[in-house]
Amino acid sequence: MAIITISRGSFSGGKMLAECISATLEYRCIDRDVIVERASGYGVTQEELRETLDKPPGFWDRFKHRKYLYLTLIQAALTEEAREGKAVYHGNAGHLLLKGPCHVLRTRIIAPVEFRVAMVQDRLKYGRQEALDYIHRVDGDRKRWTQYLYGVDWGDPSLYDVVLSLECMDLREACDTIAKMTELECFQETPESQIAMDNLALASKVRAALVVNPKTAELEVEVMAHGGVITVKGKSTSNEQNTDIDEIVRKVPGVTDLRLEVFTGMDI
Fold it and tell me: Are 260 and 242 a contacting pair, CB within 8 Å?
């Protein structure tokens, strides 16, 4: 019962592939809008969340903490969706946001330029050069976005379990190939991989609780979960804020204990 993430360039067939896999395996098909809607439950508007995903890196140089805040909420929403299992996610950086659990099948689909140009022309009614310019611009933004946020090259094949090209195979064959891969033992959900997913989801939920609380909203901390035990690492402004962190974290459902490895400005 794998979770499948699909990375793709603009108009490379990723949405159609996800829908095909979803129908073949009877998995839920999750896109960015589903995650944005769920993340907005933390009190941030869907418009603000979409802006986070769409703006290029240069914009976020001025609003680095807002970037951290919104991406924290998006990861919390995605991990909660993934915990339910049997899902195909085609959206921003799913292979990076769900890093860790072994039953996540990280896929990338690439398509010839002419395939993509034809799709842009059909969907957006652009001329050929306009379509080429659009593909180049959007792909460039996604590459810079991934490099800026995660320090990795979006096209690096080592980030994926499989990279499929539509140069020779068609979407149906790509769909069948990925569906068949979910039967491999390495992508089966195990007690260990489910624990890893639960830990990731709980850690993400704790980070989200911290960023939406006014008392800790400006913090950027590392959060790890091991069972119900949470470890928070980073820097706070005062001992009083450490107390706030303690109170907020312990109220998150699923948390059983807290290890606070946070130093304040006076500890430097």
Answer: yes
CA 87/CA 31 separation, integer angstroms: 10
Q: What local confidence, expressed as pLDDT, does residue 264 receive? A: 78
Number of neighbours of residue 92 by Cβ within 10 angstroms: 20
CATH, domain 213-267, list 3.40.50, 3.30.1340, 1.25.40, 3.30.1490: 3.30.1340
In angstroms, rounded to a whole number, what is the distance separating the alpha carbons of residues 6 and 29?
11
**pLDDT tens profile 120-148:** 999 999 999 999 999 999 888 888 878 87
Phi/psi region, residue 26 (left: phi>0; alpha: psi -120 to 50; beta: rest), is left
Q: Position of tokens 């490099």?
A: 147
| pLDDT value, residue 252 | 97
Q: How far is CA 229 from the centre of its chain?
A: 23
The domain at 3-187 falls in which architecture? 3-Layer(aba) Sandwich (3.40)
How far apart CA 202 and CA 253 sit, in angstroms, is 9
Q: What is the pLDDT of residues 64-75, one digit of tens each?
A: 677 778 889 989
Domain boundaries, given as residue ranges, for the chain:
3-187, 213-267
Distances in Å between the Cα of 98 and the Cα atoms of 16, 101, 216, 248 are 22, 7, 25, 24
The DSSP letter of residue 183 is T
**How many residues does this entry show for the chain?**
268
**For residue 3, how many C-alpha atoms fall within 13 Å in the half-sphere facing its CB?**
27
Q: What is the number of other CB atoms lying within 10 angstroms of the CB of residue 121?
A: 16
What pLDDT score does 268 carry? 44
